[in-house]
Amino acid sequence: MARYQTDMADLPRLDGAVVHILSSRIHWDAAVRNLTEACAAALERLGAKTVTHILPGSLELPLAAQVVADRYHPDAIVCLGVLVKGETFHFEMVYEEVGRGLGEVSRRFGIPILSEVLPVLRLEDAVARSAPDGFNKGLEAASAAAQMIGWLRGLPA
Predict the structure, then answer these.
(1) Residue 27 neighbours by CB under 8 Å, 6+ apart
(2) Higher pLDDT, 98 or 3
(3) Beta strands in 13-157 (DSSP E)
(4) Residue 88 is inside which H or E element, if any?
(5) Residues 54-80: what's their mean pLDDT?
(6) Rg of the chain taking only CA atoms, in angstroms
(7) Which pTM value belongs to this model?
(8) Which one of the listed residues 27, 53, 73, 90 is annotated catalytic?
(9) CA 114, CA 37: separation in Å to the nearest integer?
(10) Any bridge partners for residue 117, and if so which?
(11) Region 87-98: what's the mean pLDDT?
């Protein structure tokens, strides 16, 4: 498996930015907690304030993102979760609905929504992608959020 290490150098400062992190409780102890903590720590090092919400599962992420976008108007929303393929098509349904729903909310509110809902065949794959190293996908979400906030801040009025 090829792994991509997230480059956290040269990211914009996020002073004054607020980023809400929406995390699934499913597989929290195995992987999602590590994704969430890495993401929040990286954003806070860049100067952002983070607010974390723990939700029942990944399917709840689009609705939660819509409520957060409407109520708080954050600079970005990061969604984190793990979907492990089982013996039914539930995995595919949830993954497609989460992606579709988050895209819809992002476009409706004009807020970057970054998703690291990891679709994996084995829980061990999610554990590897949430390890406390430079390969943690929470860091990748933080990097993308920082880049999008920086880009939006740089647009002419």
Answers:
(1) 81, 82, 84, 123, 126
(2) 98
(3) 18-24, 49-55, 76-84, 113-120
(4) none
(5) 98
(6) 15
(7) 0.96
(8) 90
(9) 16
(10) 81
(11) 92
